[in-house]
Here is the input.
Amino acid sequence: MRKLRMILPAAALLAACNSQSGAVAQDTPTPAAGLPFKVTPVADFESPWAMTFLPDGSMLVTEKLGRLLHVSADGKQRQTVATFPVDSAGQGGLMDVVLAPDFAQSRHVYLSYSTADEGGKGVVLVRGQLHDGNDVCSTNNECWREREPELTGVTELFRATPFVSGNGHYSGRIAFSPDGKYLFFTNGERQKFDPAQDPKATLGKVLRLTPDGKPAPGNPLATQGFHPAAWSYGHRNLLGIAFDSAGNLWEQEMGPKGGDEVNLILPAKNYGYPIVSDGDHYDGRPIPDHDTRPEFEKYKVMWNPVISPGGLIVYSGRMFPQWKGDLFIGGLSSQSLVRVDVNGTDARKGDQWPMGARIREVEEGPDGAIFVLEDGDDGSQGRLLRLTPAG
Here is the structure.
């Protein structure tokens, strides 16, 4: 593991941004014609990518250019708790953020981002420790902030291999197994096609690691000559991964020209890319459909035209009980929120609601509200929106 010397304390680098109020276009619910939920803007960010909730209801939000923000539950206050040395060209940037299963004790936060070195570019997994800010009060009740919130001890745990040229398909999504023993990490094939089938590369794979970023013991592909971290392979650009209450691992990925997928991830399975896909190459060359090669594990749901999936949750049903156990996916080019109806290990298309902006991330709030992040590109503001029942 390597300590990241370029992680800079927020107080030193961006003190002027600390405790600033988030710009919010509107703070009251908006009736949305034809939608089954009210939309309440909470905050506005600069090209946000991912978010997660802290136990007190506040949030950590990543921004593409490398800033990690601590945001109050109402969205009105924020502090920069770390900045990262990202390579933000193209699809690169600061990506996912996930709390450790033992966060209450360890205060560990896991993140991913794209970076460059002499070998090219790739995605890395890092871990830091979140320290709360603390206020000090004198005997006459005068109070001041002695220390701002800060992410410290940031250490690189794992990096995709190999690093290659280009600015796309980093993936970088993180999910912990329900027992907290394993960390699943997605590595995209970096628009290079063949690495998804290359046993020595981590590209185009779902990886299973220990919480310290080591290849998990017992990964079944290791005995077949694969990189010891590989769990499944034959993937393209994996931008969402989540476990359901039964322990099933769901994943979504962008297809090429057509063929976006939701997959049920099973150990040692080959999902076929780039040998098969229900989409075609961008230059018009056809790719054989999944049905032509039954030896490959087939998707559970496919979209053509595409939705350009970004972000994935399995919903608990706390606020919308009719959707308990279903998947919610952000739609980028489709500018939508997408629901997938799940029944055990089967899935089918549900709803696709127009949101009027590219949706990069979906998360569930502590009370069961659904939160979505616009990604700030192609006309979307980068807002955080809270979705609650329309009735």
Remarks:
- The first strand starts at residue 2 and ends at 3.
- Confidence is low (pLDDT under 50) at residues 5-31.
- The CA atoms of residues 21 and 76 lie 5 Å apart.
- DSSP finds two helices and 27 strands in the chain.
